[in-house]
Amino acid sequence: MGNIQEAASLDPVRILIVDDEEDICWAVSGAVRKQGWQPIMATSGEEALASIQQAQPDVVLLDLQLPDIQGEAVIRKINALYPDIVIIVITGYGSTQDAVRMVKSGIYDYLTKPFDHDQIIITMQHALEERKLKQEIKRLRRKAGDTTTALRETMGSSKAVQLLIAQVARVAQTDFTVLITGETGAGKDLVAQAIHASSHRANKPFIAVDCGAIPEALMERELFGHEKGAFTGADRAVPGAAELASCGTLFLDEIGNLPLSMQSKLLRVLEDRRIQRLGGTKSVKADFRVIAATNAGLSEQVERQLFRRDLYHRLTEFTVHVPPLRERREDLPFLVRRILALTNEELGKSVRGLSASAWESLQTYDWPGNVRELRNVLRRGVLLADEGAIDRTHLWSAEQDLDPFDFAPPGEDHLCLHHERCLYKLAFDCTGPKHWNLPLKDAVQQVVSQMERMVLNRVLAETKGNKAEAARLLKIDYKTIHTKLKEYGISNGIPSEVEPPRNGMHS
Question: Which of these, 389, 421, 431, 484, is most buried using a 10 Å CB contact count?
Fold first, then answer.
């Protein structure tokens, strides 16, 4: 009771007492005032509904027998329009059946006259405590749900994304410094924004600095600002990103590109939480959370003395890895649908999906540029497709030589994977410069695995996702193909929006 009274001094608990007997209203009002709550009285159903609309009470103490509207009708309206209001029914015509029916209708409790004022107060106190708990649970679920919804709506719902969402939810409410790792275009900025949006700093600024896009000579003033006269042309004082992010989040994108000379200054700021502008003599205290992102292996840069070890450990209080698109291919159908819908809306077009060859080429490509590259390819496809579905030729630029397939000439009944140019490209992708430290056996195994996955994708496309038919064509048993599909993260079917057309015609 003490907690409720303390809260009441700031924002009084409002109790609406609805009874056509004014003596009862006055008697209950006196008991309510003694608790530090604010009583509101109404003697009819219409008056009660008007009071609810105007005062938004926390609890309604409602008599069922009213002169104008039946109490049950009032309950239905309150539940429909103001579901957070707690309803406690009082009546002189009570029965067990009435009580059961009332509780099922959504009221908190059911009391009969004559009643004890202390009993009513205790009932309202319990109702208020339960209401507060439910509101807090709803708030936490809504906050978690916002993050979940935002990331799922932009990234998909694969197991990899679900793990990512769980990590975001775990660290968001803390003030841990977070390092987000992942390839270019994987969505590190989306994860950073989701962490900020789910934190207690969500209503404060989110300031992003691209450490790879700012010249070294300008980095210090970009991060920490400058005073008037600090350099030629500095005609006024300007705060830096760290000051602008006060009470919010400072997002340092591509932190691996931060010059060594700035790394020591950033470390000092992170430890002291004080900022001194360029050309200034005084430091100011700043409270901000740091989220950093990198597409490079910072631990390797530390070993090569390109990144400070102490700063690295300061940034890695919690690490979140964003998997590349090739490791979550089950998100591909969702991403394709989403990007096509957004691009259709942007361009005022109504492209209906993808042809079989276009969909197949998307499935078998490794997407080194991740979702960003997928978005560019699909936007190009929507732009070039005048009507109907997007074909393979709409997606890939011949000048850029990006098409992962070099299809065999018409009439030749064999997989394009056997084409020398396609095989060479596959081998280079799996054994290129970033894999040169692999033993020959491992490099060959990567090529074999990639080819196996591409063959599975091609045959599944031919059989319209029929795994049993695909297993028959490949001369393997059903259990083996099921295991392979799971191993390579190949989705079992194709969404209707991008379903390959029948008989080779566009959808």
Answer: 389
